[in-house]
């Protein structure tokens, strides 16, 4: 269930809202931007990447390897700092790419919020 536009206006941008907004971008971010967002999201939710005996680095899938390496690169960053960095990156991407407005079937009015 999408977070209401009014809630965003009231509380401002936070990690959960930023994660939702990244699914609404009008254009696809570059691969480097996607990897940065991925690593920050994983660090914010799970903390440091587990050791290789628990979370083996993929061998065959190049994209999966890049995602693994991106998360490994920010090992040691606190979960709170990762959330803050994710929100900052999301705000930059919203400005850069714009976002699609989601309309509910039951409400023809659309509330928009500029961050």
TrEMBL record:
ACB domain segment(s): 6-99
UniProt xrefs under Gene3D superfamilies: 1.20.80.10
Record keywords, A-Z: Lipid-binding
Keyword RNA-binding appears in the UniProt entry: no
Gene Ontology biological process terms, A to Z: fatty acid metabolic process
GO MF annotations, alphabetized: fatty-acyl-CoA binding
Keyword Lyase annotated: no
Protein name, UniProt field: ACB domain-containing protein
């Amino acid at each position: 269930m999408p977070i209401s536009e009014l809630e965003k206006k009231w509380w401002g941008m936070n990690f959960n809202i930023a994660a939702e907004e990244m699914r609404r971008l009008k254009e696809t971010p570059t691969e480097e931007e996607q990897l940065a967002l991925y690593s920050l999201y994983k660090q914010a939710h799970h903390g440091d990447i587990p050791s290789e005996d628990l979370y083996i680095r993929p061998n065959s899938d190049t994209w999966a390897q890049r995602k693994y390496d991106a998360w490994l690169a920010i090992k040691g960053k606190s979960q709170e700092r990762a959330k803050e960095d994710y929100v900052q990156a999301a705000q930059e991407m919203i400005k850069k790419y714009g976002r699609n407005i989601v309309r509910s079937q039951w409400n023809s009015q659309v509330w928009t919020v500029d961050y």
